[in-house]
Amino acid sequence: MPHWIVPLAAHGAHSFAIELGRYLVAAGIMSLILWAGARWTAARRIQKRSPAKGDRAREFGHSMLSVGIFALWSIATLAMNQAGIIHVAFTAPLWWQVALEFVAIVLAHDAYFYWMHRGLHTKAMFRRAHLTHHKSRTPTPWAAYSFAPIEGVFEGLFLPLFLLFVPMHGIVVLAFLLHQIGRNVLGHSGHELMPPGFTRFPLTAWLTTATHHDLHHSGGGHNFGLYFTWWDRWLGTEHPRYHESFEAAAVPWFGARPRLTPSSE
Ligand SMILES: [Zn+2]
Ligand SMILES: [Zn+2]
Asked: How far, in Å, CA of 187 to CA of 206, rounded?
């Protein structure tokens, strides 16, 4: 047996466990919040429709495959770092380096995702690469990694590709990965937890909401963005009823009696 088999298998198992843990913890916490806080969250449901029977199991199954693909990307990224092709530093950075690197990688990922996502919605790609994700018309947090293998490869490609051009600190890469899964499960939560006015208030209007991505799942051809609303606004792909749908689902955090039924589709 070649000498590299055992360390590679150990790397693989380790990477798989980390990717799996990230998914299980994030989707699990979001599901727990929605379940345990149902008195507060039920009125904030975005769609009238409930997830179909078996939706969660299907989303979970496809996500397991994606976790495997991400683990392979993570092995490739570690190998590239060891070979000196990319540079991830495990030294302690200064606070402004952390801030600068984090902003850079999040902005780059947002742009990458928007254009990759537009590509996945082309006739040539949709059926083979993106239909799996869109089987969730009423998404749940477990849809976060529910991708066809080709989409999983494209989703995982971003990090090593970015690191080829920009050296980073390990702690920033970790923060990026946590922010990514956190925003991802929030976007698929099926509940609008932000208060009314959020999509129009200048300090928050540039952030996407759960309604933003939920409309992408229920309606299709709009809202391709990930973290920020900019690309959809610049390119005219924002859902025409985004603000209206958001306001229909959002409930004030304090002082108002929550609605008992969701009022938007
Ligand atoms: Zn899509
Ligand atoms: Zn989605």
From this structure: 15
Structure-token pair, residue 18: 């980390």
User: Which ligand has an atom closest to residue 136 CA?
Assistant: 2
CA of 253 relative to ligand 1 center, distance in Å: 30
What is the rounded CA–CA span in Å between residue 171 and residue 168?
8
* Distance of CA 126 from the midpoint of ligand 1 (Å): 8
Which tens digits make up the pLDDT trace of 105-155?
999 999 999 999 999 999 999 999 999 999 999 999 999 999 999 999 999
Contact indicator for 178, 21 with CB cutoff of 8 Å? no
Kindly give, in sequence order, each residue whose CB lies less than 8 Å from that of residue 209, ignoring residues fewer than 6 positions away.
192, 194, 198, 199, 246
CA torsion 113→114→117→121, rounded to 10°?
A: -170
Cα(217) to ligand 2 centroid in Å equals 6
Q: Please choose, from the candidates 51, 22, 65, the residue with its C-alpha nearest in 3D space to the C-alpha of residue 181.
A: 22
